[in-house]
Every structure is written in C-alpha cells, then in structure tokens.
Specification:
single chain, mainly beta, Jelly Rolls, 2 domains, nine-stranded antiparallel sheet, eight-stranded antiparallel sheet, 3 helices, 21 strands
Length: about 280
C-alpha cells in the first residue's frame, strides 16, 4: 500500500476513498465506479488490548435463537492468552466465565485457555464454561476469513477458514437454543470491556436462524478480498452487517441492515480505523 498526499492508493496508482473509488481519466477528472467492483478494500477496526473495545447491545437478539452463522475477517497477534487469561476473546455475547443465572446460554469466539494453537467457539450454560468447539488456529499476524455456522437443532457446528472447512473438535453437546435472552455483544474484550485483547476485525456479519455452508464460505472469502455482503450469496438471510468503512458516524459503527449499530469505547477514529483485509 502506498500513499499520495496522505491518501491510500493501490499498486496501480488509484486512490482509495470512503465508499467511492476513482479512476483517473482525461483532463485529470474522476470517474466514479461502484464499490462492489473493487469489493471492500477499505477499513477495518482495531482494538488495542489495553482499554478499548466495541459494544453492540442486543445486536444478536433473542430469545430462542438456536441457529446462527457469523462471518468475519480477523487479524490476530502472535500473543495469545495463557491459562490465567482464559477470559480473553475475540467477540462474545454474555459472559461465559460467570454463572449466568437465567441467561442459560452465552457464547464467545476465543483462543482456548492455555493454548496458542487453537481457537474455540465457546458455549456456556449456567455456571459452566463448556463445551468448546475448537479448531487449529490459522496463522497469526495475518488476515483470515472465518465463517462459523452453529446449528443447535441439527447438533452440528461448521467452521470455515479462508473458504476451507476445518476439522472441529467438540467437547460436550451442541446447545439449543443458543440464546434464551437478548444479551450484549462485545468485540475485543469480555463483557463491558473486561480483559481486553488486541485484534483487528473486518466485514462482520450475523445471520440469525440460518446455517450457511461451503458455497457461502467460498463467496465470503472471495479469493482473499472481502466482498460486499449486501449483494453476496446468502444476503437474503443477512441480519446485521458491519463493514467498518464509514468513519463519519464514529464512535458509532453503522449497521448496514438496520438501526442496531455498535459503539466503539475508549478510542478515537485515528486509533480504531486501520487498513482492512484486502487493502
């Protein structure tokens, strides 16, 4: 990535602008082309592992949510939690480390406690930190696309990384429903900003009551460049979508499918926004 007058430009010399992209033509004029042609070569969000995080109240919804698909790009550092830091996660709903009372079930996507080689989809029932449905962690210090499809009634969980199905090790039964009440989403920390961790995230989407599969995983990976999921295979089931490209509403992150936005806590736009996957 190169820069001209403080603006990012592609290898071909094309400046990247928020939401619209230009190609220099005759007389130095700009011809605007659709962002979908160049896909999402814009921004991502970064949490610093110190004090900032993202809050999404009731973005997941509930109660009674028994199937859920989550699509996102993540960039992880080489430093993963140890046993003493087993509450760190990428994103989660509720707080699996505590007794949940009437919450019944919550979940998190996190490195497995005491491991530097596994990621898990951590589902917690009341007062219980298991089961962990885990995969081998893809390479750190690099962007990877994840698609997690959780099917409670079908008792299956499928996890794709960069469009490829992963071997999922299961510890305990698949829970259904996945949520029995509406809980807040946290990204880059446990609930309410506790135990923050460094990560970058891009093109985050939730599909309620939908189990996406291999066709969707291939389309979402898109050869290594995040596509616009509003027009990508499976978009008719899209519930919430955050592409992290609109900086004008910061600290609010626009939900492109509706009014349930997310909020960045303890950060500035200059600190939070970072070149995205594929940029």
């Amino acid at each position: 990535m190169r820069f001209r007058n403080g603006k990012k430009i592609t290898a071909g010399g094309v400046p990247l602008r928020k939401r619209t992209f230009g190609i220099r033509g005759r007389r130095d004029r700009w011809n605007v082309i659709s962002p979908s042609i160049l896909a999402d070569a814009g921004y991502a969000g970064e949490t610093d592992g110190i004090n900032d995080w993202v809050s999404g109240s009731n973005v997941i919804g509930g109660p009674g949510l028994s199937t859920l698909s989550i699509s996102f790009w993540a960039y992880l550092s080489g430093t993963l939690p140890n046993t003493a830091d087993n509450n760190r996660w990428l994103m989660g709903v509720g707080n699996p480390s505590n007794s949940l009372g009437s919450r019944e079930v919550s979940w998190a996507v996190a490195p497995r406690a005491g491991q530097t080689t596994q990621l898990c989809f951590h589902v917690s029932t009341t007062g219980d930190d298991s089961p962990l449905h885990r995969i081998t962690t893809p390479g750190v210090n690099a962007w990877h696309q994840h698609l997690i499809a959780y099917d409670g009634p079908g008792a299956t969980i499928n996890w794709y990384v960069d469009g490829v199905a992963q071997a999922v090790t299961e510890n305990g039964p698949i829970q259904s429903p996945l949520l029995t009440s509406s809980l807040s989403l946290s990204i880059g920390s446990r609930d309410s900003g506790a135990v923050p961790r460094f990560m970058k995230i891009d093109n985050l989407a939730f599909y309620h009551n939908t189990v996406l599969g291999q066709t969707h995983a291939t389309a979402h990976y898109n050869g290594g460049t995040p596509p616009d999921l509003m027009t990508t295979t499976g978009s008719n089931h899209l519930s919430h979508y955050f592409d992290f490209n609109d900086q004008s509403t910061f600290p609010t992150l626009e939900n492109r499918t509706g009014s349930l936005d997310m909020t960045v806590m303890n950060s500035t736009a200059g600190e939070f926004f970072t070149p995205g996957a594929g940029a």
